[in-house]
């Protein structure tokens, strides 16, 4: 088990959720149960999966949940692209507010090139930058 609060990747994922909630406040009210909800759910799934993986008893289980987090990050990327194409978010808004790195290097406290079993699992999980490349 690992304390997720000490992981920079969790901190960045949490900040991403807060940014998504802030950005979606301005979405049309008729999207509250559609795209707004979907963006919020998939963004909050990223740190949630990190937390759940850290609470598991094996490195293999942690890696599995990190892969789930990556899947949620990919889903979020698409939802952001859709939001842009529907005119709900500007490319500038996505770049300035929602572009949050979820990189494997530096995810653990105290080092930009962490070592140890959890850092290796993060590399294996290939958590990458949520970047819409707009």
Topology:
Elements: H1 8-24, H2 35-54, H3 59-85, H4 91-98, H5 117-125
Helix pairs in contact: 1-2, 2-3, 3-5
- The percentage helix is 55-70%
- The DSSP helix count reads 5
3D shape: elongated
Order of helices and strands: HHHHH
Please outline the major beta sheet: none
Strand content: under 5%
Helix/strand/pairing category: mainly alpha
Q: Please report the total strand number as a whole number.
A: 0
Q: Mean of residue pLDDT?
A: 78
Model description:
- The chain is mainly α and 134 residues long.
- The longest helix is centred in the middle third of the chain and has 27 residues.
- It has 5 helices and no strands.
- The C terminus is likely disordered.
- Helix content is 60%, strand content 0%.
What's this, in brief?
The chain has helices spanning 8-24, 35-54, 59-85, 91-98, 117-125. With 134 residues, it is mostly helical. It is elongated, with a radius of gyration of 15 Å.
Keywords:
134 residues, mainly alpha, 5 helices, disordered C terminus
């Amino acid at each position: 088990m690992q304390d997720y609060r000490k992981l920079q990747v969790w901190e960045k994922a949490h900040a991403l959720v807060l940014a998504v909630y802030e950005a979606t406040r301005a979405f049309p009210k008729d999207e509250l149960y559609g795209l707004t909800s979907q963006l919020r759910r998939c963004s909050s799934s990223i740190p949630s999966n990190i937390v759940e993986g850290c609470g598991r008893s094996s490195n293999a289980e942690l890696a599995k949940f990190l892969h789930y987090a990556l899947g949620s990050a990919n889903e979020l990327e698409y939802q952001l692209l859709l939001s842009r194409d529907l005119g709900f978010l500007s490319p500038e808004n996505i770049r300035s507010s929602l572009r949050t790195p979820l990189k494997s290097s530096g995810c653990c406290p105290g080092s930009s090139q962490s070592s140890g079993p959890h850092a290796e699992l993060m590399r294996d999980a290939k958590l990458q930058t949520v970047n819409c490349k707009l």
